[in-house]
Every structure is written in structure tokens, then in C-alpha cells.
Amino acid sequence: MNSLRLLIVDDEPLIRKAIRTALSTIQGIDILGECGSGSEAIEAITAKRPDLVLLDIQMPDCSGLEVIRRVGSERMPPVIFITAYDEYAIKAFELNAVDYILKPFDDARLRESLERAMQRISANTNAVIAQRLELLLQAHSRKWPERLVVRNGERMDLVSVETIDWIESANNYVELHCGAKQYLMAETMANLEAKLDPEKFIRIHRGRIVNTTRISAIHPVMSSTYAIELRNGIRLTSGRQYKDAVQQLLRS
Question: Global pTM?
Fold first, then answer.
């Protein structure tokens, strides 16, 4: 391989700039471009066919894993994840020979990951890489996350899913209500709903998800709507289009 054709994907401009600066000192790297969202990444990967993608796990429009699903594991190039994920996720990446760098990262860690990636690209066929990415997707589809990563200024808060009472939509963000604490997370309701265990969390409204273990009572209101009463006394009104979900909860 004469040069490694690389695509940078991260929703933070400062992170992308730091990566580009670090890569400028490494010979044999050809940066094809930068993407600030998952949708941009899908388009760029399909059109430019990079040899390697530096891929952010958590982006507002879709996750890094969702990018792989939409591109297709058989067409996806090798990946180095940029992540602040929990220990379970990191183990899954390692088991499936997909590398990662943790935010905040240093140049030495980035260089080390790139060297490993180049060795794997040289040693492995496309079929082997596709198989490993597919195994990664399967590993994450088998277990619901125990924690969510929420950016809070310069730090990352790890919010236990078990502490969430309910979730509220806030435009392109969601607000996690955890007892007396609230966390604003850069995620859409649809994406977050797909990540949560449907046995524990149900969508009761276009803008509300509730932890079923926190529900103390359900009050019929009118026109197929309900008042969902939580143990802390909060009442949430369901939407008409979600009546089946509430009725299924009552039956179970």
C-alpha cells in the first residue's frame, strides 16, 4: 500500500482539527476529507471508498455503529473508533479486532492505532474485515447499554440507565430525568429509543420515553390517552398514537 486513504468522522470541529494536525506528522497518510455527522460519513464512505475510517461513536444524527449498518459490513472499510464508551464496548471492539482511541487522546495513541490498522489491512482480506465488523454489530445487538455517555463541558458523564426515570425530547437533544438530576444529551429520541431495552423503556409520546420500573399507576384520560404516574409523583401524558404501547404494558 503506497499510502493510506483515510476519512475523519467526528461531530466536533476541534477534534477533527486535532486529528488532522496529528496525522500531518505521519508519512503515508492521505486524508480524503472530514465529516461532521453520520449521514455525511455514509455518503463519503460510499463515494470515496477510503482504506480506513476514524469514526466517532456518538454523533447527534446517528451512531458510528449505525454508520456501519447503513453502509453494510461487507462494504465498510476498517475502522478506528473515536470513543468515550464503557468497558463493555471497548472489550467488544478488541475482540473483533476493531481498534479505538479514547477521548481525550494523544498523538502517540493515535499513531499506535494507525500502525496496527495498516498491519491488519495488509494482512486481512476484505472478507475477513467484513466478518469482524459483522461480529461487532452482532455483539452490540445482543446487549443493551448499562450506561449512557453525556458530554458535560470538557468532561463526560457516565449516566447509569437504571437511574433514568423518564426522557424528554429537546429538539435535536434529549433530556434525561434521573431523580433530582437532569442531563442534556446530544441524541435524537429515535436513536436513543433504539438503544434502550424495550422491556424497560417504552415510548409513550412523540417527545417522551418512560422507564417502566418507575411507573406507579396509569390513569385513562380520554381519546385513547393516559396519564402515566411515576413513583416520584410526576405525571406524563401519553400520545394517542402510542395507546397500543400503554395497553400492552397494562396487559403485561
Answer: 0.52
